Amino acid sequence: MLMLFCSSLFCQAERVFNQQLTDRLEASGFRVFLPQRDGAERDKAPYDTMTEEEHRQAIFHLDKTRLLASDIFPVRPRWTCADEGACR
Question: Can you say how many angstroms the Cα of residue 37 is from the centroid of all Cα atoms in its chain?
Answer without folding.
Answer: 7
